[in-house]
Amino acid sequence: MHSPELREQCAQQLLAAAGRVKEFNVFVGLDGFVDEIIHVVDKRDNAESFHRLPTIVSLADRLAAAAGQSTNVELVRQNIKLGGNGPIMANALANFGLNVTCLGTLGYPNLHPVFADFARRAEVHSLAEPGYTDALEFTDGKIMFGKHTSLKEVTWQNVQTRFGIAKLKAKLNLADLVAFMNWTMLPHMSEIWAALLQEVCPSLNGRRRKIFFDLADPQKRTLADIEQALNLIVGFEKYFEVFLGLNEKETCEISHVLGIPTKDRSPEGLAAMALAIHRRLPVNTLVVHPVSFAITVGEGGVNLIEGPYLADPFITTGAGDHFNSGFCLGKLLGFENALSLLTGVATSGHYVRTGQSPAIPDVASLLRRWPAK
């Protein structure tokens, strides 16, 4: 999948380019959440000590056993942090040193305090109050319970009145990278994309920019909604180099929408699935990032890179957004897909081990001290 030599090459190129990152401008939107990271109690020793339910399956078994009866499930808050795919990715990019503008649901009319530190590293603007997420974390994944009412205010009308069409055009003209995150939870995002394609993109001038899309688990959206979103994403290829990012579950969901078989979930099977999706969705690069490896399909063919997998991570909420930030950093620096994937998995690997967004030297350090399995 990759060699120590390739990791060292990636580390050297990242460190050599560290002084250049401040030249890049990024625009990210349009969501925003307050995340509570939560563990579920299995057995409690005393008032201060407990053993948590380790897996989603163990919670499912406990809930299933309560059917027809009742049960008590204790939740213990581990942390409160900024959330939402957009703010997490934007915060990670700002931590690399890029010039970041983030427009989302970060508190309205006043910024929510959880975003205050982020606002010192990036230029932030808000359209509405944030959503709220209870993120139950397990060793085999996470369950996100969300409250999304405020996200209905993210409309094209409010983008124009609460942010401004002239300001939006100026930000997109300045941007080297644009990222639109969390389509699933923003019910009016497709309308916004359609308006951008019709009213904004034709007026963009100069170079061909990069744009990243993250659907964010579209299972609850209708087939027609998903098909419309995919068509709009492909439409942006006229004006941008389009990157579409999917995790393993999203890859299977999009494959189902496109009529692509999803039985083989092995690395080779997911690579074949990604190749089939890319043939149906002719964007510049399709990125697939399961937990332990990542794949790109693009002009250079198929790349598959193993990540620094950790069986018992410190945190998992936001890991995919950190991967996306690292991958996009690599693409902004002109890296080929394999090195961009390595940058992505190393960025995510540092985050799940520490709970902190890495700086470029942190990513290089992990690449040079690659964890043993």
Summarize the entry for a quick read:
This protein has 373 residues and is α/β, with parallel strands linked by helices. 40% of the residues lie in helices and 24% in strands.
Sheet/helix structural class: alpha/beta
CATH architecture: 3-Layer(aba) Sandwich
Query: Would you list the SSEs in sequence order as H and E?
Result: HEEEHEHEHEEEHHEHEHEHHEEEHHH
| Helix fraction bin | 40-55%
**Major sheet, described briefly?**
9 strands, mixed
Percent strand equals 15-25%
What would your notes on this structure say?
- Helix 1 runs antiparallel to helix 13 (360-368) and helix 9 packs across helix 10 (267-280).
- 40% of the residues lie in helices and 24% in strands.
- It has 373 residues and is of the alpha/beta class.
- The strands form 2 sheets. It has a 9-stranded mixed sheet, sandwiched between helices.
